[in-house]
Amino acid sequence: MTMTLKRLLALLAALTLLVAACGDSSDDDSADGGGDDAGQDDGGSDDGDSDDGDSDDGGSDDGDSDDGDEVELTQGDGVLAAVQARGELNCGVSGAAVAFSTLDAEGNMVGFDADYCRAVAAAVLGDAEAVNFVELTAAERFTAVQTGDVDLLMRNTTWTQSRDTDVGMDFGPTTYYDGQQLMAREGDGFSNASGVADIDGAVVCTNAGTTTEQNISDAAAAAGISITLNTFEDFNIVTENFISGACDIITTDGSGLVGRKAEQQPDGEEWVIFPATPISKEPLGPTYGQNDSQWADVINWVVYATIIADEKGVTSGDVDDALANGDAEIVRLFGGEGELQSAMGLSADAFFQVISQVGNYDEIYARNLNPVGLTRDGSANAAWTAGGLIFAPPAR
Amino acid sequence: MENSQPSLTIDDGVLPQAAALPPEEPSLPPGEWIKKNLFSTPFNAVLTVVFGAIALFFIDLFVDFVFSEERRWNGTATNLRLLMTQGYPESQYIRIWVSVGFLAALTGLCSGIWNAGDAVSMKRISTWFMSTGAFGIIAIALSPLDTGGKTTWFIASAVSLAIGLALWYGLGDQKRRSTFVRTPYLIYGAIAAIVASLWVVPYGNYTFSDGVLTNEPDSIVAFTTRWPWLVMAFILIGTYIAGRFAPASAARVFKPILIGLWVLSPLIIVWVILRDPELDWDHVISTDIPMALGFILIGGALLYALSKPGLGEIGKLAGFGLLLFAAFHWLAAFFGWYPMLQKARLSFLFLALFAMAAANFAGDRRTRLQLVFGWGIFMAVLHYFATMINTASTLEFRGDFFLGGYALTLFVSVMTLMLSFPLGVMLALARTSRLPIFRLLSTVYIEAIRGVPLITILFFFSVVLNLFLPNGMSVSETAAVVTGYTLFSAAYLAENVRGGLQSIRRGQFEAADALGLTGSQRTGFIVLPQALRVSIPPLVGQAIATYKETSLVAIVGLNDLTRIANAIIPAQSEFLGVQMENLILISFIYWVGAFSMSKYSQKLERRLGVGER
Amino acid sequence: MSISDATTAVSEELASRDDMIVCTGVDKWYGDFQALKGVTATVKEQEVVVVLGPSGSGKSTWIRCINRLEQHQGGSIVVDGVELTNDVRNIEKIRSEVGMVFQQFNLFPHLTVRDNVTLAPKWVKKQPKDQAEDKAMELLTQMGIPEQAEKYPGQLSGGQQQRVAIARSLAMEPRVMLFDEPTSALDPEMIKEVLDVMKDLARSGMTMIVVTHEMGFAREVADRIIFMESGEIVEVGTPEHFFTNPTEDRTKLFLSQIL
């Protein structure tokens, strides 16, 4: 028996040595784990009961492009350095927000928000396609930023005081000024000039569990009228009920209503959207974790760059020309002279890449929002020069 | 058992479809059958007419709904690829066809080698043809096809009806009842016919206007659809023939290999074929292969030593010591104390489990070597897949996970079932264990999980799990959700298996004890096989529920079939609000999966019932 | 007491053999009910002992104690020199030497007849597969059912099943066979085929303890008969002594009811 025991101990010792050897090799080697798609590695781990561990591999090994830790030490520990080291931007989007972020039939993420993710990737990494779109539900969006799952949230998130302060988010410049409106049938006696006071006694429908429900109740109370409020699980069902006549009026953000009118208004019927001044303010824009001003500056100036380019009439088609003989502000913005971008930790041509690969504000707007019937003219999203709110500080 | 009475004993009377026609009565011609079963008394005639009319009304309602002007089916049709695979790159579609071909070959070979399938009497085949024809005529009459389309499909239905009648009257009564066609021939014949029809029948491109569905001329299915399916049909039928006529000696060798391939097929398809890992050969040669060999050889030697007869308690202690050692590595992984390849941690865990089982293989050299070889094969497979999974994919796909749509639905359900089955069985055994600590832990776990809704668990795992993990450690959402779903499903599975365990008679335990079997042998050879057999109906019910309830992952934001149909496509600018159409389609997809599972389980129960009685 | 009287009636030759099973004052309670009250008996090597008694007399309980399917709470049981204690190794050793045949056969319904017979030799005795299967076929031939090897227990008649159960026990090459009312669950026409097999087994020199109601078998095959009632051994003796000249009143009463 003692003989056997000794043999067993010897074997255990040998195995321990092997462990040590493996530990070393895992430190040196890069191919295991890592790769340019850490998400897939994690996905892999759910086979073989090793969820946590696999990703831990990715963390402790130096993946060939995933080697965040060491680079961070030399470049600071902000999100910008992490993104540059990773070579990919993790951008949180909805994935089911009409015209803002949706999957097309080929599975590509498209939309206004999706394009702003691409714009940030173009500025930070020089490649508009270096984006890993992370689809987030409303419930998990802020957690995803806090845990670092996403670097940036472009998920039609309204800028509010509590989110800015209490929830621990910071907000970039508003890219789209939205606001809650109502939609009704012209045949029922409504017009674009109607107001909340005109809907006394109507059946109003909206989707459940959002602030739209609260807003319309408040507005009705303020106007001293009574309405019947019906809520449904999602806005597709709300619209179906509006078409079938079960709802007199439906309400949500104006951008949503315009899209529905453009796509689903039956022949021989006219839908009208009112009141002209929305019953709520919904400024939508980029959102990121607070207290990282370097990263905040990058995001903010990507948005400003698109606005300045629009203001100066520079589109993706004529960037080279603008760089060669445009006005001074554009040349500075595109890295033709000065050190403005380098000071931010970006390459000098960062914003040149943004405009050339993604386009200016107007292009992004037209590409994504015109197809659903949203136009800039006369809205809050017109340029400040045209009476709107889209404004950027000067680049100098 | 599989070969028991392949034909000539199947009687129509026992099969539910033919329940209206008891076997002892002479089979009635269709006209008399209708008279006897539908219009036997005036009251029955009234019932038949009233309920027939109600049924027709609802069918009509449904058809009107499906073929309404308001339905925008092109939204669904355009997005079929999104529904099936989300963003799987089109250039890599060959991988999907390779996977389908792999499964087709396995199916064909297995059904050939095992000579699977029943036989169906001519009588039933003729009734199938007749009812298809009759149903077709009613459906077409109700459908909004244009006159040309209606005529074509009327003719097709009439032909089916005529074939049925011809088979009925062409074969004499006695002959009709005793002529059998083996189901594989029927199924493969039908598949061949459907695939062949892709080349001739104009299935595609109907336009719908003014309430009439018009077929555009020359609209047969695209070439890129036609010919892969043709290849698949050839593979299926070819491998079936190969398996059917393989020599018995070859079949003997192939059977275990085929079973192994079936078990591994989800891993092979998802991680090797679909994901196309980009192997780094330097790393494979310098690290992966030596490490696997090290575990195989040193672990094998250890197991050989531990299975020495008469080692007794020392063997058990060594196994348990190894288990603690392995558990320590996982703890270390969690707190990030020292780096170590995940594969090594997994291998140690399994080495410990094998070591605990080694005592059961104590005996002569041959038995002990069996254990060692088993270990070697297991390690080789484990290391192979661990390497494949951890290697970067060559796919140009950005996102949380490279599968979406129906592919993700299948992935989540298959992985959940594969992982929760062993876990559930272990929980069930622990709950019926004699050791109070196991009983307590298992009961607490099962009752805790069963008291919580699945959606809560999914939310917890998808949102909160990453907050609980130590710094620098994170889990992708798909992995987190599959983990949560597995833990949930295992608790229910455990209760199903426990029901089976409790149905095992005391005499079985006593007989096993009296023969001197150890506790684990008694469980493994006597109790579990019988318990699992008893549990088949609830287990299949659970599998169907798991498959269908994967749709809940849509709520936590994974792009499975339901979310793409319900949220993604209706949000596309060009197909805004196209939702009902998608839901009808995916209902059908879910139904096909669930219905085939339940049919298969009925068959399995019937077959296993033979040994039971 | 009469027990010693009866024991003297056993042949000198038998008395000279080694002890196979020695039970001394075995007690067993089920709750408050005492099922065995100080059972003391010795079974010699190659002896066939038939245990008779009315139902509920503790016969089955006693032989189930011998291979530890029931745990006795007082006294001692020694099988082939090994005392039954809580030590797992002793239990395993004794079980591999003591075969048991049950009233309800207790075959494993999910295994073929051949697998039923070879399972324990392969996994407990670690016999190679070929050897175990050869032995199984030999035993099934001996039982007269070699052609049933590939069938499942559910496809066999009761008598055939019980013979498979006997073969399954014999495959472990036990030194003692315990039979717990092996024919009670059988239809009358099947009883004989099982009894014949048991008779052959007895003639081959197997040590056997048989709990049964088959008086013919007892008279023909038994070396000794033990009569139990209310958890006690009432009388022990040769069949001749037992059937023709029982000493105890209780035995007489039992026989008068049965015969």
Topology:
The complex is a heterotrimer of chains A (about 400), B (about 625) and C (about 260).
Chain A: H1 2-28, H2 38-44, H3 51-60, H4 68-75, H5 79-86, E1 89-93, E2 96-97, E3 101-103, E4 109-110, H6 112-125, E5 131-135, H7 141-146, E6 152-158, H8 161-165, E7 169-171, E8 176-178, E9 180-185, E10 203-207, H9 211-223, E11 228-232, H10 235-244, E12 249-253, H11 254-264, E13 271-274, E14 282-289, H12 293-311, H13 319-325, H14 328-333, H15 340-343, H16 350-357, H17 361-369
Parallel strand pairs in A: 1-5, 1-6, 10-11, 10-12
Antiparallel strand pairs in A: 2-3, 3-4, 6-14, 7-14, 8-14, 9-12, 9-13
Chain B: H1 30-38, H2 42-66, H3 73-78, H4 80-85, H5 93-113, E1 119-121, H6 122-142, H7 147-170, H8 173-178, E2 180-182, H9 183-198, E3 206-209, E4 212-215, H10 223-244, H11 248-274, H12 281-306, H13 313-335, H14 342-357, H15 365-390, H16 405-431, H17 436-450, H18 454-468, H19 477-502, H20 506-514, H21 519-534, H22 536-549, H23 561-568, H24 580-612
Antiparallel strand pairs in B: 1-2, 3-4
Helix pairs in contact in B: 5-10, 5-11, 6-7, 9-10, 12-14, 12-15, 13-14, 14-15, 16-17, 16-19, 16-22, 16-23, 17-19, 18-19, 19-21, 19-22, 20-21, 22-24, 23-24
Chain C: H1 2-9, H2 12-15, E1 19-30, E2 33-44, E3 48-52, H3 59-66, E4 74-79, E5 82-83, H4 88-97, E6 98-101, H5 113-123, H6 129-142, H7 158-170, E7 176-180, H8 188-203, E8 207-211, H9 215-221, E9 224-229, E10 232-237, H10 239-244, H11 249-258
Describe the structure.
- The complex is a heterotrimer of chains A (396), B (613) and C (259).
- Helices cover 43% and strands 16% of the residues of chain A.
- Chain A has 17 helices and 14 strands.
- In chain A, the strands form 3 sheets. In chain A, strands 1, 5, 6, 7, 8 and 14 form a 6-stranded mixed β-sheet that branches. A 5-stranded mixed β-sheet of chain A has the order 11-10-12-9-13, sandwiched between helices.
- Chain B is built from 24 helices and 4 strands.
- Chain C is globular.
- The relative contact order of chain C is 0.18.
- Mean pLDDT of chain C is 87; it is low at 1-9.
- The chains are: A alpha/beta (396), B mainly alpha (613), C alpha/beta (259).
- Chains A and B meet through helix 1, helix 2, helix 3, strand 2 and strand 5 of A and helix 4, helix 11, helix 12, helix 13 and helix 14 of B.
